[in-house]
Design brief:
The protein has about 450 residues and is α/β, with parallel strands linked by helices. The protein contains 17 helices and 19 strands.
Length: about 450
C-alpha cells in the first residue's frame, strides 16, 4: 500500500518530485511558504534564469514536461567573452556543438506546479513550516496568522538551503552540517531588447565579462532581454560597499562594462532597487531519518551557481529516487539509505566543482593560456572520443556521476600540462614523434581513471 507523502517546498525540485511520486500512485501534499507565483508577479532581482543541461532534461522527461519546455529554452553553445579592452571571443562548450539551455526559472516552476495539480497533488500555499518533530514526523505550520499541525507519513524537505526539515535535523544527535558563505554577493540587472524586440547581443551564448576579482554574466530570455548577474565582493577595493552613489556605478560600468552599459537604460534603477544576495554552499549528513524523511535538492546540497548545476543536481536527485523505486518498489527503508549513499558524494562533488568554476569564469577565461588549453581539450575529444572527454562535458552533457568527473581533474591537468609543455599542439600533432608520445600520455591518463565508475547516475 502506497504511503502518503508530504513535501516541503513547491519550488522546482519539490514540484517535480511531487509529479514523479503522484504518477506512481502516491497521495502527495505539497506545502509552500510563498503565495502562488502563477497569481503574482515575480519579484525582480532574484535568480530568474537557469542553465538546463542533460541531467535536468532527463528529469523533465520523467515528468512529461520536456516537449513543452523545449520551445521556450534558448540553446547556449558556448561562452561569449567580453574583455576589458573591448575585444570579444567565443569559447564553445562542446566538441559536438552541444548546448546548455537558458530557461526561465519562473516559467518552469509555474508549469511544474500546474502539472502537479493536474496530476492530483494538493498544493498548500502561504504555509510556513515553523518546526518539524523529526522523530514523530509532526510538522507545525503558520498560515494566515494561525497555526496548523500536520502528521506526515513520508516527508521530503525540498525547501532550499534554509530548509525547515534540514534545520530540525541539525538539532539531532550525530548530525554534521555547515553553511559556507562566499565573501561575494550577487545582484541582478537587465539588458533590454532592441526597438523591434530583437536581442542586441548574440542570443545563443552565455555572456561573461571576466574582471579577475569580479565579473558579470548574462543569459538570454525569450522576450529579447538578457538577465545579467554581477558577482562582486561585499567589501574591498572594488566591491558592493564602494558602490554607494549613482556616480560610483556609472564609473564602474563606464570603465569595466562599457559595451553592456550601452544596452542597460535601467541600470541605475535596477542596481539600487534589486537586492544584493548571498552565495552559500551547504553540507549536511545524514540526508535522511530512518524511513520517515529525507532532504532533496538545495535542502541537501545548496551550491553556488557557477557551474549552472544547482537545479540540474536537484532534478537528478529526483531521477535517482525514481530509479530506486523501480528497484525497491515501496521499501523506503531500503530506498532512503541507498539514495543517500548514491547522492551524498555527488552533492559534495558538484559543490566543489561549482566553487572551482567561479575562479575559472571570473579570471581564467581571459587568460590566453587557458583559452589554448580549452581548444586542445576540444581537439582531443574530437580525435580520441573513446579516450578523452573533458570534465566540463562530463558534467554538462552526460550523466556521469559528479563524483567521477571531479576525480578526473588532476589526471586531465597532468595530461594537458604534458601536451602544452611541448609547444604548439596544433603544429606538433602533425608530427609522428609527438603523436607517439601523445598516445603514451593518453594511455597513462586512461590507466589513471579506468578504476572510476563512468556509468550513469540514474
Amino acid at each position: 500500500m502506497s504511503r502518503n507523502v508530504t513535501i516541503l517546498g513547491a519550488g522546482l525540485v519539490g514540484s517535480l518530485l511531487s509529479i514523479i511520486l503522484r504518477k506512481r500512485g502516491y497521495e502527495v501534499d505539497l506545502y509552500e511558504r510563498r503565495p502562488d507565483m502563477r497569481n503574482a508577479s515575480m519579484s525582480a532581482g532574484k535568480s530568474i534564469n537557469l542553465a538546463m543541461s542533460a541531467r535536468g532534461w532527463k528529469a523533465l522527461e520523467l515528468a512529461g514536461l520536456k516537449t513543452e519546455m523545449e520551445p521556450i529554452a534558448i540553446p547556449m553553445y558556448g561562452r561569449y567573452l567580453h574583455m576589458q579592452d573591448g575585444q570579444t571571443a567565443f569559447q564553445p562548450y562542446s566538441k559536438n556543438n552541444e548546448a546548455i539551455y537558458s530557461v526561465s526559472r519562473g516559467e518552469l516552476n509555474k508549469k511544474l506546479m500546474t502539472l502537479a495539480e493536474q496530476s492530483g497533488v494538493n498544493i498548500n500555499f502561504e504555509h510556513r513550516c515553523a518546526h518539524v518533530d523529526v522523530v514523530n514526523n509532526v510538522l507545525r505550520f503558520v498560515h494566515g496568522g494561525n497555526e496548523k499541525t500536520v502528521n506526515a507519513d513520508l516527508l521530503f524537505g525540498a525547501d532550499g538551503a534554509f530548509s525547515a526539515l534540514r534545520n530540525s535535523y541539525t538539532h539531532m544527535d550525530r548530525v554534521n552540517c555547515d553553511h559556507f558563505y562566499l565573501e561575494y554577493g550577487y545582484k541582478e540587472l537587465a539588458i533590454l531588447p532592441g526597438a523591434n524586440g530583437e536581442w542586441l547581443m548574440e542570443k545563443n551564448a552565455l555572456h561573461i565579462w571576466p574582471r579577475g576579482k569580479y565579473m558579470m554574466i548574462a543569459l538570454p530570455n525569450t522576450d529579447g532581454t538578457f538577465t545579467c548577474t554581477m558577482f562582486m565582493p561585499y567589501e574591498g577595493e572594488v566591491s558592493f560597499e564602494k558602490l554607494k552613489t549613482e556616480q560610483d556605478v556609472h564609473y564602474l560600468f563606464d570603465t569595466q562594462f562599457a559595451d553592456a552599459k550601452a544596452l542597460m537604460p535601467g541600470l541605475i534603477e535596477d542596481f539600487f532597487t534589486n537586492p544584493t544576495s548571498s552565495l552559500i554552499t551547504t553540507h549536511i549528513f545524514p540526508w535522511h531519518y530512518k524511513d520517515k524523511s529525507a532532504l532533496i535538492g538545495d535542502a541537501a546540497h545548496a551550491i553556488v551557481p557557477f557551474y549552472g548545476q544547482g537545479m540540474n543536481a536537484g532534478f537528478e536527485d529526483c531521477s535517482v529516487l525514481s530509479s530506486l523505486l523501480d528497484i525497491y518498489g515501496e521499501d523506503w527503508a531500503a530506498i532512503l539509505p541507498e539514495y543517500q549513499k548514491r547522492r551524498k558524494p555527488n552533492g559534495d562533488a558538484v559543490a566543489a566543482l561549482a566553487l572551482n568554476n567561479f575562479t575559472e569564469m571570473r579570471d581564467k577565461v581571459a587568460d590566453p593560456k587557458f583559452l589554448e588549453r580549452k581548444k586542445i581539450e576540444k581537439e582531443l575529444g574530437t580525435r580520441f572520443p573513446d579516450r578523452f572527454i573533458s570534465v566540463y562535458e562530463m558534467v554538462s552533457f552526460s550523466h556521469i556521476p559528479y563524483d567521477t568527473a571531479i576525480q578526473c581533474i588532476q589526471a586531465q591537468d597532468r595530461l594537458l600540462e604534458q601536451i602544452m609543455k611541448e609547444g604548439d599542439f596544433f603544429v606538433n600533432i602533425e608530427q609522428d614523434s609527438f603523436r607517439s608520445a601523445l598516445d603514451t600520455w593518453l594511455n597513462a591518463y586512461n590507466e589513471a581513471v579506468q578504476q572510476l565508475d563512468f556509468g550513469n547516475e540514474a
